[in-house]
Amino acid sequence: MWSISNIANWVNEWLGKNFSAAWVTVFEMVIAGILVISLFAVLGLILVIMERKVSAWMQIRLGPNRVGPKGLLQSAADTVKLLVKEAMTPNGADKFLFNLAPYLAIVVSMLLMAPIAFAKDFMLWDLNIGVLYVSAISSVSVISILMAGWASNNKYSLMGAMRSGAQIVSYELSAGLAILSIVVLTGSLNMNDIIRSQADGWWIFKGHFPVWISFIIFLIAITAETNRAPFDLAEAESELTAGFHTEYSGMKFALFFLAEYVNVFIVCAIGATLFLGGWMPFHIGHWEGFNHIMDFIPSSLWFFGKTFFLIFLIMWFRWTFPRLRIDQLLNLEWKYLLPIGMINLLLVTAMAILKWHF
Amino acid sequence: MVEEIGTTADGDLIINVGPQHPATHGVLHLVITLNGETIKKVEPHLGYIHRSIEKMCESLSYRQFIYVTSRMDYLSSHINNHGCALLVEKAMQIEVPARAQAIRVLLDELTRIASHELWWGAMAMDLGAFTPFFHAFREREMINEIMEDTCGARLTMNYILPGGVLEDIHPDFVKKTKEFIALFKRKVDEYFELLTGNIIFQNRMKGVGILSAEDAISFGCSGPTLRGSGISCDVRKHYPYEIYSQLQFEEVLETGCDSLARYLVRLREMKQSIHIIEQLIDNIPEGDFQAKTKAVLKLPKGEFYQRVETARGEFGIYVVSEGGTTPYRIKFRSPGFSNLSALDHMARGSKIGDLVAMMGTLDLVIPDIDR
If DSSP codes are grouped into helix, strand and coil, which group holds residue A183? Predict the structure, then answer.
C-alpha cells in the first residue's frame, strides 16, 4: 500500500487531474531532480558516517561519537564546516577548468542515478539500454579527474590524475565484461528485465561458476573504478599527499568527496541489480512460508540492504589491504583480469546457448 | 646543490617530497627527479630540525647532557640515555649495581618493542593499510603505561643517571610487564597474519629496495637495515654492555637484502626482545638501584667512545674531555643519518610508491638524523 511505486502513481494521477499534460511532465521532472539531489546529499552523509564507523569498528576505535546521538550528526557538522570554508583557486591554475571539474564529477554521478531501480516499479528513467548507459556515462568521470589534475598546476595533482586515468580506462574493460556476462544470460540491456529474470533465483545463485567469477571480477573492477583502496593510487596520501584534489578546498573538495561516495553507492547498486536480484526478495525453492515472509519485506529495503552489503564489502577492502603499485595495478588488469574475463564471457555465452543454467 | 624547482634539461620532473609531506614522518625534505613514475635521483635535504644538540652538550654537565639525547631519537630515548650513562660510568669507573643493570636492560628492550611497533604501524600506513597502525598502538600503549608508572614519562623517559637509575621500579612493574608479555606473544603472530602474509604486501616488498651487503657496509648502515642484508652487526652481541653477555638471545639475520628482509628483521627482533625480558623479569636482583657518586662529575682527560644498539642501529657517543665538568667536544653517531644515505642508491630506478616503502623499512626518525 505504501510502496514507493504506489506513492509515485498517486502523485502522477493527482497531477494529471489538476494540470495539463505538458505541466505534468515539467512538475515531474522538477520532483525527480529534487529527489535525486536530496538522495545525493543524504547518501553522502550516510556513507561518510558509515565509512567512519566501519573503519573505527575494524580499528578498535570508537569513531565519531560527539556530535548528535552516537556521533550520527558528525557528517552534517562536517558539511557545514566545508560550506563556510573558503574555496581557493591557486595561482597559475586554469581557473575555468579548475572550477568546472568538481561539478562535472558530481553531474556524472547524478546522471548515473537515472536507470537504477530503487524499488519495485520505481526508477527515474526506464531505459531499454540501461546497462549500456551506465557503462557509457561512468567513463565520463575520468574526464573530471584529468581536468582537476591538469588545471591545478600541481605536480602531485597531475600525477594522481594520470594514474587515475590509466586505472579507470583499464578497469572499465573488466567491469564491462563482467556486466556483459549477465546481459548474455538475460538477453536484455534493460535493468528491469534483468531484475525480472531473477524472479526464480538471483544470478549469483543460479548462474553457477562463471557468474561467480564475473562477480569477483566485477567487485575488483568497481573498487578500482571508484578509486578506493587497495586501488586508491590516484589519491595515495603517503605518496601524492591527496592526488588530483590536493589543491581543492571547501565545497569544491566536498563535491569530489561526495561524488566519490555516491559513485561507490551507484556501482554497488548496479552490482546488486545484476548479481543479487535488485529489489527481488530472497526465495528458497518451495519453502512457501519462508518465501511469503520474505515477500512481506518492502522491495526498497531489499534493494538498499543488498547495496549496503556490497558497500560494506568495499569498505572492508579499504581498511584491510595495503595499496598496490601502479605497474602492479595495470598488470593485474591486463595480464589477469581481462583474459580471465574474456574466457569467462565465452563460457557464459556457451552456457546461455546450451541452456546449462536453471 | 639546490636545482631550480621544476623540470631538468632532460625534461624530467623534479618533485619536492617534504619538508611537509605525509610519507616522511617529520621534516625531511627529499628532492626527487622523476621520469614518469620512475625515480632517477633522490636528494635528501637536511637541517629543518637541527637544534645543535652537540654544541649545547658542551655547556652541560655530565649529569645534564644525558637528557638532551632523549630529544634526538625520541623513539629509543631510553637507549640513548643508556649509552651516555655507560660512557660516563666507563670513563669514571663507576660500578653500577646489579639491580640497576637489570632494570636498564629491561626498559631498553621494552623501548625497542615500542619503537618497532610504531615503525610497523607507520610503515603499513605508508603502504596504504591503515588498520595495522591502530593494532600496533593498542599494544604500544601498554608499554607506555609501564614506562609512565616507573619513569614518570611516556616517551622521553629520562630515567637513567650515571651510576644507576633515578628511582626504583614501580611496585606494579613486574605484574604489568608479565601481562604485556603474555598478550604480546600472541599479538606478534597476529601482526604476521594481518600484514606479512598479504599478497599485495608481499608484492610491494619482495625484491624492492635492494641494498647488497657491500653497499650497506659502505654506506655505514647499521641495525636492522644492515642485518636485513645478512651482516651480523648487533652491538649487544659484538660489544656487549651491561648484562647482555649473560643473556640468551639470537641476533636476527635475513639474507633477502630487500624491503621484506628489513621488515622481517624488525618483526622477529620484537620476539627476541620478549625473550630477553622473560629471562630478566623474574630475576631482577635485590639491592641498590643507584651507586653512590660524587656530587660533581668530572671525566678524566682523554677521549671516550661508547656504542649501544638502539631500535634503529648503532648509536655512538664520542666525548673529548679536558678534565672539566663539561665535555670539550661531543659527537653523536646516529644510525638514521647513515641509513638515510643509502636511500638514493636503493631508490634509483624504482617507482614512487616503492620509495615510500623503502623509507618505511629504513625506519627514519628525523630528529635523530638532524640532531
Answer: helix
CB of A4 closer than 8 Å to CB of A122: yes
Map out the domains of chain A as residue ranges: 87-354
pLDDT digits (tens, 9 = 90+) for A98-124: 888 888 888 888 888 888 887 777 777
Domain B49-370 has CATH 1.10.645.10: yes
- CA distances (Å), B239 to each of B79, B130, B208, in order? 15, 38, 32
Confidence of residue A340 (pLDDT cuts 50, 70, 90): very high
Instruction: Please list the alpha-helical segments (H only) found in B256-312.
Output: 259-281
CB-CB neighbors (< 8 A) of A323 in chain B: 127-129, 200, 204, 353
| Residue A153 sits at the chain B interface (C-beta within 8 Å) | no
Determine whether the interchain pair A60/B135 forms a contact, defined as Cβ–Cβ distance below 8 Å: yes
Q: What pTM did the predictor assign?
A: 0.83
Per 3-state DSSP, what percentage of chain A is helix, strand, and coil (rounded to 5)? Answer: 70, 0, 25
| CB within 8 Å: A155 and B13 | yes
Q: Which of A232, A239, A322 is facing B201, going by the closest CB pair?
A: A322
- Can you tell me which residue has the cell 631498553? B108
Written as one string, the DSSP assignment of B173-184 is HHHHHHHHHHHH
Could you state, in order of their start, the residue ranges of all structural domains in chain B? 49-370
Give this complex's ipTM: 0.78
| Lowest mean per-residue pLDDT among A231-235, B64-68, B81-85, B342-346 | A231-235
